[in-house]
């Protein structure tokens, strides 16, 4: 038996009894191949995860969702409803000036007008009191502001109380605006003779302007022609003296406050009653006369006559007695009257011990000393006018 036959027989016997087969040359080769294949497979298996890691992008780590804050649902916004405002009387300062000076004014309130005079547009305000009745003739008061101010300032009740006094007593009050280079009308001045500012330097026809204003008011309202008066503060007071000099046919009485008579010529045809009100410590229009602050600028001021010179002048013009009598004396104020005047006229002087350049009983301009409360210029003025 050859060697090969012996090996085959031995392998068959081993397989038959379950013994391990003897190796053959082909089987050894097969085993070696299987071993290499196994090793190769294991190597591939080990290297596969690395390759997978290299090829597969790293998964993004999801951040833990933040716990949402539970917020109450916003309530729907309610529609805005504008509250209805109660109607109020018009304010002259807020009104656009009207050019209609022919139509009648039938209702109380504040009105503002613009007119052409002397080639210029001039404005003025009119306050008609709540108790106005067109069937009854009402008194008229023309109120003139001081230099550097405007009609709106003179109409401000906190400073002068003229509007509320008008409502209580039933007189119509007019607030003309002086001449100003500013389109807004402030600051403004009056041509009162030797005073004041650009109105004087430009020789403004302020007397003609005020006459036209009064004529317009006659057409629009029921006015008593025998009870037309004028009052004013500072340069407005000086302008009232010029009105008394040049319009005695219109004005029955004037009540200047903190002013002086700066007219160069004054020859009124009719007597005009005068109530002059002044603070003894007034430094802008000095009680004893002379130039006030700013005298180095002649366009701003003048060499004022004293209060006694002014009042004495009008006592003489009205043919009054030369010696006044004391008619009021109280803490901080007194009044003196010149009697026996022509045409039942009267000249009176009321003096406050303090208050400076202000309207007694009112509110002073910013930076000015407190106004004297010993006397109300508004009450004294109307008491004087109502006797005429």
Sheet with the most strands? 10 strands, mixed
What is the global morphology?
globular
Helix-and-strand structural type: alpha/beta
Helical residues, percent: 25-40%
Counting DSSP H or I runs of 4 or more residues, the number of helices is: 10
Low-confidence stretches: 1-34, 43-74, 76-93
Q: Please, what is the average pLDDT? A: 81
> First CA to last CA: what distance?
176 Å
Alpha carbon gyration radius: 52 Å
Count of strand segments: 12
- Spatial strand sequence of the major β-sheet: 1-2-4-3-5-6-7-12-11-10
What would you note in describing this structure?
The model is unreliable at 1-34, 43-74 and 76-93 (pLDDT under 50). The chain has 388 residues and is of the alpha/beta class. The chain contains 10 helices and 12 strands.
Could you name the key traits of this structure?
two-stranded antiparallel sheet, globular, disordered N terminus, 10-stranded mixed β-sheet, 10 helices, alpha/beta
Compact overview of the structure:
The chain is an alpha/beta fold and 388 residues long. The chain is built from ten helices and twelve strands.
